[in-house]
Amino acid sequence: MNYRNLGKWGLKVSEISLGSWVTDLAGTDAEAVALQTVNAAFDAGVNFFDCADAYSGGAAERFLGKALKDHARSEYVVSSKVFFPMGRGANDWGLSRKHIIEQLDKTLKNMKLEYLDLYFCHRFDPTTPIEETMQVLSDMVAAGKILYYGVSEWSPVQITEAVAITKQYNLRPLSVIQPQYNMVDRYIEDEIVSICEKNGVGIVTFSPLSQGLLTGKYRKGMPLPEGSRATWQADRQINNLLTEENLDKVEQLIKVAEGLGVPLSVLALAWILRKKQVTSVITGASKPAQLQANVQASGFSIPADALEEIERILNYRPFVRRIG
């Protein structure tokens, strides 16, 4: 496993990290497999584990805390996020000082930790001044409850304004962002990557396999694999990605991957890591075998001619999309 600095900061994070977006697994066979997966991640050199308060209403945080408890605190980097509703009250969501402080305390209790390494604003809150949000996050760093903080799925303008406010008020810096980034969603390349590079902000990306599109399991002209996400996902995110254009690209990308002797998933992860500004790729894995496949991407260098072929296949053109 290779490690990269979080932007310009001293924290070292594994190139492949593990996300913990799980249902309440307590007392089930699935919990045992999930625990095995976390332990397999440690064995493979993964040191970064990502979560959020809204994942399964806190169950994901409680699971991750249980999974990490047998490992020395110095061995891992753990994150969570705040924004989405955690109750029915008027102040049970958002990025106000009240909600952030209350929810951070709940997160630490869920995980049985004294501090988080990283803490993210899960989305942008238009009802709260950015000054208020940046101030309370800076205060939480000063209080020792978090070490670094950042944002997820904020627009270039919002990120730029947040950075400017921290400088204007001499606050602890915004140190990391967590955007979606993969072969079929490259919007961060247009402005966000350069903003982060200029300000020393780390980038930890999510959805690297585009809901499973880039695993190679969904093939043109073939039925959906039994039990796959496309057969049960309520919001149909993956189904909306299974267009003729995307499936044509997948067929061509599989040939590139086969020529390099790796699965398409490894090629897709290594392609993200080609960007030196990316600190880590947050992956999902429901069993140890998936985790072990993903970590092959760390240190895998895609040859220049293959990168050129990938660019031809993807045929990317800058565009504007709604963020968040």
Question: How would you summarize this macromolecular structure in one to three sentences?
Answer:
This protein has helices at 29-43, 59-68, 97-111, 130-142, 156-168, 192-199, 237-241, 244-260, 264-273, 288-294, 304-314; strands spanning 3-5, 12-14, 16-19, 48-50, 77-82, 116-121, 146-151, 174-177, 202-205, 278-283. It is of the alpha/beta class.
The number of helical elements comes to 11
Please name the CATH topology. TIM Barrel
The major β-sheet equals: 8 strands, parallel, barrel
- What name goes with the CATH superfamily? NADP-dependent oxidoreductase domain
Residue stretches low in confidence (pLDDT < 50, at least 5 long) are: none
Overall form: globular
Cα-atom Rg, whole angstroms? 19 Å
- Secondary structural class: alpha/beta
Look at the structure and give the CATH class.
Alpha Beta
Examine the secondary-structure arrangement and name the CATH architecture.
Alpha-Beta Barrel
| Number of spatially distinct domains | 1
Let me know the number of strands.
10
Q: What's the arrangement of strands in the largest beta sheet?
A: 3-4-5-6-7-8-9-10
- Share in helix: 25-40%
N- to C-terminal separation? 31 Å
**Average pLDDT:** 92
Comma- or semicolon-separated keywords:
single chain; 324 residues; TIM Barrel; 11 helices; 10 strands; globular
Protein model, in words:
The protein is an alpha/beta fold. The chain has one domain: TIM Barrel (Alpha-Beta Barrel). The chain has helices at 29-43, 59-68, 97-111, 130-142, 156-168, 192-199, 237-241, 244-260, 264-273, 288-294, 304-314; strands spanning 3-5, 12-14, 16-19, 48-50, 77-82, 116-121, 146-151, 174-177, 202-205, 278-283. The strands form 2 sheets. It has an 8-stranded parallel barrel with strand order 3-4-5-6-7-8-9-10, surrounded by 5 helices. A two-stranded antiparallel sheet has the order 1-2. Helix 6 links the parallel strand 8 and strand 9 (202-205). Helix 1 (29-43) packs parallel to helix 10 and helix 4 crosses helix 5. The longest helix has 17 residues, at 244-260. It is globular, with a radius of gyration of 19 Å. The model has no long low-confidence stretch (mean pLDDT 92).
